Every structure is written in structure tokens, then in C-alpha cells.
């Protein structure tokens, strides 16, 4: 039995196979331009790369990705709220305009946390393969993105180290 | 939460089921599109071969449509020119070849007489040329009839495809990406990332392989055509194309590719040993270039198939599907192997057992976090 959503998807394939969906592209471009990952990259390039991204919708409670699964993309939240958990520990809640899962853009290592849609969500997937293609096509612009990504990951590592230092008990002098 | 693993959630079983469904769907589509199958295959090969050039032009700042139009203009002009020049020549050569088969016994006896004189003089071995020729004629005539029928229908297909191939290749180059993205959107959320990972791993290998065999085929065809022409052997373009195609078949190809030039020398007005040696030397030289330069550079990973698998599938495909079966078996077999292994490895990475294993490792390495 096919659902309305399946019918809509099939209709989209047959009726408008080559048209880009402008509405979400504009919204996602605006959000990306405001995000530190896309700092220093021209609007036109961001719009181009966003037009190659993949929009998806998730229902409340649906798992976006599992911990320890291989990752292949980062996600931008257009709408809704995403809960990030490691095992049973809640790490953070992310909202409209946030990007998560960006570690997978840098490495194909397994995900270190689980992401669940805590409200109905509209997400945009930025695949590593799309980023690789971007690097090949526009290496200068893509290198800005990679520098931003490394800075973001380095800052997170620094924060985590500080947290560990703060929570650890000082060593005895003896 | 990590789900308990059941028999049905085993990655090998899952991969087998998905692979069987894919193969069935592909077989149904192939039977539906049977009249256009050859055209679609050629268009896909051209797409794989031309994709890097269009990508390069796009990287240099040319718009995607302009890049496709530029590459296609060159290809269409080349295909039309080759078609206009080559097809009448090849058709005429096939007719000529057909009429010559009538007098094969005389030609064969003449050649065997030469060989007999040579072996009697230098090796002190003699045989009855007329009797040996009579024995060979029956089998050779039958083989030639079959070969002529297959090759004629093959080139008729090519002529029919000349009009459709550029059109399909153009749309593949321009719109394949959009169609692929739309099709991937049909995947359920749970399998979206996994689907892309499997697709990327598979397509990069298949792209490289298809591009490799296209380059290999073109190179061998050009080398052999030039070689046969320089050696003064008849039907040089036809033989060049046949050798290029037959050379695609691993293991058997090396031997099979030598048959058409030898047969052509046998059927020539003056069949002699020197021409036969020259014909074999051209094929041998082309295969040497192929082994030393083309294979390691363009299709290094394609030799991963087991020789027994190749021999059995090529024999069966040749028996059931003729010339097209011989040529298409190994690329199809390789594609099947790549798709299945990538499906299996992707599903294994997403299996509960693998997940438990990775979580345990993460807990070990980051005890302060978990």
C-alpha cells in the first residue's frame, strides 16, 4: 500500500525531474551564510553548494543517525529540534540553523553520538561525496570550508579538554 | 538503543536479498528495453568515458550545459564521420569476406602446401595438405557463417544506435545527477545515508572500470587497425574493431582476438605464412602494449575476478547470448561483484553486532564521556 508521501515523491520524479526546489535552497543558503562553517565563502558559491544538498523530513522520535554507525554527511536543521545523545546521556539539543554530524565530513569514522528528532524536523543533508566534488571543482572556496571545519573541530577538542581538566581531581604532590 | 541481532538482520542475508531484488529488477528492465539495450549500454559507456572531460570543463568555469554541448559536439561529429566513412567500408568488406568463403578449400590447400614444404624442408615432418584442408574446411566454413551472421547483426545494431546514442549520452551527462538525486530521495530515512555510501563506493569503482575498458577498447582498436593497415592485411578497420572488442574478454580474449586476422589472411587472394605471422605479430604487439601500459593504468582493479569464474561465465554467456554475451559478461560480472560486496560491507557497518563492537571500543577509549 502506498502512502500520500510515497505518491508525492513519485509524482515529483515524473513531473519535475530537472527542476531545483528553490524555496528550501534559499532558506538553507541564508542559514549556511550565518553559520561559522561557511564563513568567508561567497554567497553565490554557498547557494550553488546548497542546491546540491538533499532535503529530508523526520517525524518526532525518529532516529536520524545511530551511534557507532558509519557517517557520510552533516545535517542543517531547517525546522524542528534535534536531540544529541551518547549512549543514555543527553549531550545537547539543536535547533533551527544549527549544523550537526559535521565530523563525518572530515572522516568516515563511526558516529560518536546518536541523533533523534525530538520534534518534527526538516533537515538538509550535506554529503561528504558532494563536498569532495566541491573540492575538485572549486578548491579555493572549498579550502575555506575545510579550514572552518578544522577550526570548529579544534575548538571543540579544546573545550572538551578543559571540561576534563575541570572535572578531574588534582593529583597529589606526594 | 542497540537492537538484538536476528537471523534476518544478518548483513550477508540482507545483502543477498537486496542484490537478488536489484538483479531481478534489472533483468525485467532489460527485457522491457531489449530493443534499446545495446544503445543504452553504448550510451552508458560513452557517459562513463566522457564524464571526466565534462567535469574538467565545469571545473574550468564552463557552465554544465555548455560543457556537455562542447564535448557532445566533438563526439557526435566523430561518430557521424566514423559512421559515414566506416560503415559502408565494413559492410562492403563483410560481403567480400562472405564471397571469399566459397573458395576457402582452395586457399587453405594452397597455404597448407606452403606449410608442408616448410616443415618437410626444415623439420622433416610431412602431411597430406588436401586431406587436412578438407577436414578443416567443414569446421571453418561453419564458424565463418556463424561469425558473419553475428558480426553483421552486431554492426546493424551499431548503425541503428548511431542516431540514439548521442541523444541518450547528452541527457545522461546533463541530467543524470538530478535523476539520481530524485531516485535516492525515495530511500527511507533510516537507509538514506547508507544508500548514499553504498552508491558512492559502487559508482566510483564502476565509473573507473567502464572508463578503463572504453579506453582499452579504443586503444587496441586503433593500434590494430594501424598495424593491419601497415602490414597490408585486408579489412584492417573491421579487424581492428573486432580485436578491440574481443580483447575485452579476460583469459579467452588473448586467444580469441588472434582468430579473425588469421582467418582473413586465410581468405585473402594470396594466403601466405608471412602475412599470417605479421597479423599475429600486430595482435601480439597490441596485447603487449595493453598488458604493459593500459591495464595497469586504467583497469588495475578489474583483474579481481577468479579465472574459473571468468572462464565459466564467458563460456555460458557466449553459448546463450552469442557475441554480445561474450563481450558483456565480464563487465556485468565485475559490476555484480562490486555492488554485492559494497552492499554487504555497508550493511555490515550498520548491523547491531558491529554497532555493539564499536560502542564498546568507544567506551574504552573515551571513558570520561560515556
UniProtKB/TrEMBL annotation, chain A:
A Pfam family that the UniProt record links to this protein: cNMP_binding
GO cellular component, as recorded: cytosol
Molecular functions per Gene Ontology: DNA-binding transcription factor activity
Transmembrane regions listed in the UniProt entry: none
Origin: domain of life: Bacteria
Domain Cyclic nucleotide-binding: from-to ranges: 37-135
Matching PANTHER family: CRP FAMILY TRANSCRIPTIONAL REGULATORY PROTEIN (PTHR24567), HTH-TYPE TRANSCRIPTIONAL REGULATOR ARCR (PTHR24567:SF74)
Name used for this protein in its record: Probable cyclic nucleotide binding protein
Natural source organism: Mariprofundus ferrooxydans PV-1
UniProtKB/TrEMBL annotation, chain B:
Keywords (A to Z) from UniProt: Cell membrane, Membrane, Transmembrane, Transmembrane helix, Transport
Chief subcellular location: membrane
Transmembrane parts of this sequence: 12-34, 40-58, 67-90, 158-176, 208-229, 235-257, 277-299, 319-340
Record bears the keyword Cell membrane: yes
Superkingdom of origin: Bacteria
Topological type in the membrane: Multi-pass membrane protein
Keyword Lipid biosynthesis: no
GO annotation terms (biological process): transmembrane transport
Signal peptide (from-to): none
A Pfam family assignment: AI-2E_transport
Location(s) in or outside the cell: Cell membrane
Assigned GO CC terms: plasma membrane
Entry's family note: Belongs to the autoinducer-2 exporter (AI-2E) (TC 2.A.86) family.
Protein name as catalogued: Permease
Annotated source species: Mariprofundus ferrooxydans PV-1
